[in-house]
Amino acid sequence: MTEKIIASDYLSPIQQFGGMGKIHSVFDRSFNIQVNEQLININNYRSYLAGFGMYLPEEQFRAIMPYVEPGNLVKIRSHSLTFYSTKGTIVLPLTDVAFVSLQVKDLTFTAAERNSLKEILTQQNLVEKIGLPLEKRALEIFEVLRHPEPDWQQVTAYLIGRGKGLTPSGDDLLVAYQAMFYAFDQPAEKLATALAVPLSTTDVSKAYISASIKGYVNSLIYRLLTDLKSQDQQLIEKDVKDVMKIGHSSGIDLCFGMLLALESITLE
């Protein structure tokens, strides 16, 4: 049986962002297509899907990679992506894509499930491992985030774009915080509004932020949240560890954002 293309339903329909895009950035086993303001991440990692991502099986991924160079054009149709390059063109059929939900707004949790996740995250000593220097202002902002109704303008002004890499640590923290507020049915709109303005950060990070505003997370956070219902401590701990392994410090920053959000939620 041939493996299917798997995509986040955030990308359905695929042509919603526009009919023409270009290759934005290329990595070892993934690349991004930019369509107007939106990025579409295409990868060959079986275990990881971005909220705005699509997984291609090995054979298809290998076939299109020679045509993938920054700046090359990509035509987007409901049933295909056409890649243009100096080597010629190649068509990736999208007639049989398995769309999966990475949307956390519809999940529901009990206070016990929430406490269980909070406890496991607390045990990881995350603050010592995050990608941000623990300067006085950072610690003050973390304290603000531990309480309901923070001043979002002050928080985003400090955190957005702060830290190294494709997704700065401050951004990762807020992406996870936003997701937790949606997942645990908290008032997420004020943060979403603060994040919906033009932001000074990387394009890749903006794509994760845009997805989080709509309640979309990466597949590892989604799995962690759905496994929370199982009340299987070992499984949940493994899921947390898997999230922590993302990128250089991205996963740790995401987990710390989740913890701060959980600490701010008044427990019934």
Automatic annotation (TrEMBL):
Name the source's superkingdom. Bacteria
Listed Pfam families: AllH
Protein name from the UniProt record? DUF2877 domain-containing protein
Q: What is the lineage of its organism?
A: Bacteria, Bacillati, Bacillota, Bacilli, Lactobacillales
